[in-house]
Amino acid sequence: MTIVQRLTMTTVAGIGAITLLTGCGGASGTTTAGAGAAAPASDMKGMDMPSKPADSDYGTTDESTSAPTDDDMDGMDMSSSKPAAGFNDGDVMFVQMMLPHHQEALQMAKWAQNNASNAEVKDLAMKIQMQGQPQLGKLNGWLTAWDKQPLADDDPMMTSMPGMMSAAEMAKMKNMKGSAFDRMFARTMITHHQGALKVTQDEITKGGNAKVKSMAKTIRTSLRTELSQMKQLLPTL
Questions:
Q1: Considering the domain boundaries, does residue 225 fall inside one?
Q2: Which of 18, 55, 109, 231 could anchor a disulfide with 128, C-beta 3.0 to 4.6 Å?
Q3: CATH number of the domain enclosing 133
Q4: Domain range spanning residue 140?
Q5: Cβ–Cβ contacts within 10 Å for residue 6, how many?
Q6: Does a structural domain hold residue 74?
Q7: What does the pLDDT look like over 164-201, one tens digit per residue?
Q8: 230 found inside a domain
Q9: Helix, strand or coil for residue 40?
Q10: Domains in the chain, number
Q11: pTM of the predicted model as reported, rounded to 2 decimal places
């Protein structure tokens, strides 16, 4: 083989290799262009992503579960023990006087559960406890809200309060049992309720706070019902 023939073959082989490489490069370029249809991550920042379904495993986005509006709150009593409106001296006096009245009645009712022998006396004592205990909490809450203090034991209002028992009478009742307790409980509670009625009537007439006046009316209703029951019961004891 001559030198010219060798040069010719080498040239042809080189041209073929170049052609083959060019074809591969073109195919590679086509593949890259096709994959490039996806947008870069940086271009996705402004895109709106779909929110999670309203009823997903993470909870619901239903507006019915949102916080209540002002209109929804109008019928809700959010201050069972703290009046929303203002108060006057009549309100303060009612609360200060009704607190010891309730405390004394609740103490007598508690003794009746163990000392009384009459079923009606026991039932009445239970009713007094169930009605009076929640009211006691509200009365204390109102004094706290108003920055007022309960009456001291030696306060003139305490010693002159209608229907209240003396310390000697309370000690006597505590130690009584059976029918003797039943009779003393009924007699004493009648006097006690009559005094409490005067206190509630003063609040209804002179009080200024709607919530406190409402409680006074509720107490008055229960006092009248219990008084009627005890007056009928006493002669049978």
A1: yes
A2: 109
A3: 1.20.1260.10
A4: 89-236
A5: 10
A6: no
A7: 998 999 999 999 999 999 999 999 999 999 999 999 99
A8: yes
A9: coil
A10: 1
A11: 0.63
